[in-house]
Write a structure and sequence with these properties.
15 strands; 8-stranded parallel β-sheet; 36% helix; 15 helices; alpha/beta; globular; single chain
Length: 402
């Protein structure tokens, strides 16, 4: 194993169930080889096979798995800063919409953008996340709402993975909203655009999962079911924006399809929590949207805990309801707004975020997992959630390379 590298003198927050908070190993070491973690444990137990390998002494720094942002919309055209200002100056949602704002403005700008434009505008957002230790990133479509633009968004997401050191998982979100050209005809949009585009994108190899928005302002459970049926026929996993503004039973529906995750879930009821627990569906909490929309009803954290539903966190980075480009701030928001613990927050952007993407080779420091790591200049893991607007990243490791 000539390519072995050893990191030593570290605190390892493995996020494994080893009986210690955070799965913490004090004075730990890990060996990397071939882009994977070959061994991790107490430094005194470092196997003889790794003792002569090049070492880097981290002087007590904290090592965590690379962070995972499991719900983003980072590829889009334009921005909505002017609408933000209009609202703060007293304009109603209706007035903003009449002025061409809301999702219509993003759809218009995204349809007008080229592939190169979409990649170029997304890269600063992606780079901000990478600078905070993110090594895996989910990117959704959903601002094209026509076949060609949805495909272009997914192609842009795939291209980002080729030009930046980050793992990208793509999600088709054709059932995001009813576009203006299908106003009042959501069923026709599902049948004529969303499902045919899903099939076209799958044929091109552009999709890792399928999502939808189940809400009064978007699509009902029957319409989402048709999308999910099409996804399952193609062998694609599903997930769902559910119970963000009301309770339509979206999470329960998602669980019935074995969904990877149900996201937002502020209005989730006990029946929905129970269905998610039985299905193993991850709850993805999105405090950025909760904050931006000034919502009052928080997700049912206590019941999720009681039923053992894994809780992930994500930025939901998007131009309208969550223009948030910091996963570290997301962790702090989840603690302050939703009262999750710092350990739950770190688990939510590593181990449980991996589960929300259907990934089993990352999210923990474990032999055989990808050597995707973040090294921090902090004294304890809680600092990652405690600090506001601070980034203590010392080094990011992707596939064993810094």
């Amino acid at each position: 194993m000539t390519d072995v590298q050893v990191l030593c003198g570290a605190q390892l927050a493995t996020l494994e169930d080893n009986g210690a908070p955070y799965g913490l190993i004090e004075n730990g070491a890990l060996a990397m080889s071939g882009g994977q973690i070959a061994w991790a444990g107490p430094q005194q137990d470092l196997p003889d096979a790794f003792r002569e390998a090049p070492r880097e002494d981290l002087a007590g720094r904290l090592v965590t798995p690379g962070l995972i942002d499991c719900h983003t919309h980072v590829v889009f055209g334009g921005d909505r800063a002017t609408e933000f200002e209009m609202c703060l100056n007293g304009a109603s949602y209706e007035e903003v919409a009449r002025a061409g704002g809301g999702i219509v403005s993003t759809v218009k700008a995204t349809r007008a953008a080229s592939l190169e434009d979409l990649v170029a505008s997304a890269l600063p957002r992606v780079d901000a996340l990478l600078a905070e230790g993110v090594t895996t990133l989910e990117i959704k479509s959903g601002y094209g709402l026509d076949t060609e633009t949805e495909l272009t968004m997914l192609r842009a997401a795939r291209q980002i993975a080729r030009i930046r050191p980050v793992r990208v998982k793509t999600t088709f979100l054709g059932a995001h909203a009813v576009p203006p050209d299908y106003s009042g005809r959501p069923d026709a949009y599902i049948d004529e655009v969303a499902i045919p585009t899903l099939r076209a994108a799958h044929k091109e190899g552009l999709i890792d999962a399928v999502d939808g928005f189940c809400e009064g302002i978007a699509f009902d459970t029957a319409q989402i079911s048709r999308v999910f049926e099409a996804a399952q026929a193609l062998g694609l996993p599903v997930k769902l924006h559910a119970e963000q503004l009301s309770n339509l039973g979206g999470a329960k529906l998602a669980a019935s399809y074995g969904a990877l995750s149900a996201d937002h879930i502020e209005y989730l009821d006990e029946a929905g929590v129970d269905a998610m627990a039985q299905a193993g569906t991850v709850a993805v909490l999105l405090p950025g949207a909760f904050y931006t929309l000034r919502e009052m009803q928080a997700p049912p954290i206590d019941h999720l805990r009681a039923r053992g539903v894994p809780m992930a966190l994500a930025t939901d980075c998007n131009p309208g309801s969550s223009p948030l480009e910091s996963l570290l701030l997301t962790m702090n928001m989840a603690c302050t707004l939703f009262r999750v613990t710092p350990e739950e927050a770190l688990t939510g952007v590593t181990r449980h975020a991996a589960a929300a993407l259907g990934l089993t080779d990352c999210g923990m420091i474990r032999a055989g997992h990808r050597a995707d790591l973040a090294v921090w200049d902090v004294q304890s893991p809680a600092e990652l959630s405690y600090r506001i607007g601070a980034n203590r990243l010392y080094k990011r490791v992707f596939g064993g390379a810094a």
